[in-house]
Design goal:
By secondary structure, this protein is mostly beta strands. It has one helix and 24 strands. The strands form five sheets. Strands 11-16-17-18-19-23-24-21 form an eight-stranded antiparallel sheet, with no helix packed on it.
């Protein structure tokens, strides 16, 4: 039974040993899962024919139960969810798969997961797994009204969000979609030069793939209100050519009303001279990262979160998903 749920698996693998002599572990399968996707948990090495439960919370705890001699590492905040009465088989193995309640407002939030297992011959003998941390990716917002943008080489188009979008402590009702693979706030960006100092010192910028693209040579740029207009807006570059003839580039950037930003990459043409990331602009502080490194990093203004790709370090995010989850008033976590 799901008591309460406000977020889903972030698509990670958890390896944990129960706090006893049992060689037990539990895993969360899938890769980079999003809100609304099936959340699967497998327990192995537990007590045969035993009951186990899964706890998930945004607070790492701990919480003590003196009568049972147990201290659970979860905090039991209002966002806590317990999935009860799962059964292990005769080998001590069990599995559950479910789709939780949808709530994109929790996208980008860290949460914690722990399994508890009860000895069927002694209900007071409860063992727990180690606590593991993960993050939440927003759901795919679906397709709504799609509008093709006519943007020339180095050109731009001003697009309305349909909601107020918070970015580094400021609120915006529209964004410039620029031909060269980036979006800016307050003013357009016609620069085709992949320059780190301009990326940091120019207007606030969201750059999925900042390079010298040219939609006049091929491909399209679309804006999609998504299936949840007023909650998300997607901008899609579909097979857009570049001025060096490297091949078509495809990606989607989705802006969520809560301030989260998702990059979803397909195949790309150029792999050198590319900037990917976000910047608060106005001389944001240098803060280059390896965006393909598993895990997450957290930064606030004036620190941007980005990577400069070059011939020495070519673009390596093809066919991957990258989330910038807004935290606080002006900070972002990035999750690969």
């Amino acid at each position: 039974m799901i008591k309460k749920f406000a977020f889903a698996s972030a698509g990670f693998v958890v390896m944990a040993v129960l706090a006893s002599t049992l060689p037990a572990q539990f895993t969360v399968d899938g890769t980079q899962a999003r809100v609304g996707q099936t959340f699967s948990v497998t327990v192995s090495g537990g007590f045969p024919n035993s009951v186990w439960m899964l706890g998930i919370d945004t607070d790492p705890g701990p919480t003590s139960f003196p009568s049972q001699g147990l201290s659970v590492d979860l905090g039991f905040s209002p966002a806590f969810v317990a999935i009860n009465d799962q059964l292990c088989d005769g080998n001590g193995d069990g599995q559950i798969a479910f789709q939780p309640i949808l709530d994109n407002s929790f996208s980008g939030v860290s949460y914690y997961i722990q399994a508890l297992n009860t000895d069927p011959t002694n209900v007071l003998n409860i063992v727990k797994s180690n606590l593991r941390e993960a993050v939440i990716h927003p759901s795919d917002p679906g397709v709504g009204t799609v509008t093709n943008l006519t943007i020339n080489d180095d050109g731009s188009a001003l697009v309305s969000f349909g909601f107020n979008f918070p970015f580094y402590g400021q609120s915006y009702s529209d964004v410039y979609v620029n031909a060269n693979g980036n979006m800016t706030f307050g003013q357009a960006n016609s620069s085709f030069l992949v320059d780190e100092s301009f990326f940091l010192g120019g207007p606030p910028c969201v750059a999925p793939f900042f390079t010298d693209l040219n939609p006049e040579l091929g491909g399209t740029i679309d804006v999609d209100t998504t299936a949840t207009p007023g909650q998300a807006l997607a901008v899609r570059f579909n097979g857009v050519a570049d001025n060096l003839g490297s091949g078509p580039t495809t990606f989607t950037v989705t802006f969520y009303a809560g301030g989260h930003i998702a990059f979803d990459f397909g195949s790309v043409g150029p792999t050198n001279s590319v900037i990917t990331g976000i910047s608060s602009g106005g001389q944001a502080t240098t803060n280059g990262q390896d965006l393909s490194a598993p895990g997450f990093e957290a930064y606030g203004a004036p620190l941007g979160i980005y990577q400069v790709f070059s011939s020495a370090s070519p673009f390596d995010l093809q066919n991957s998903y990258l989330l910038f989850g807004r935290v606080g008033n002006a900070g972002y976590l990035t999750f690969f």
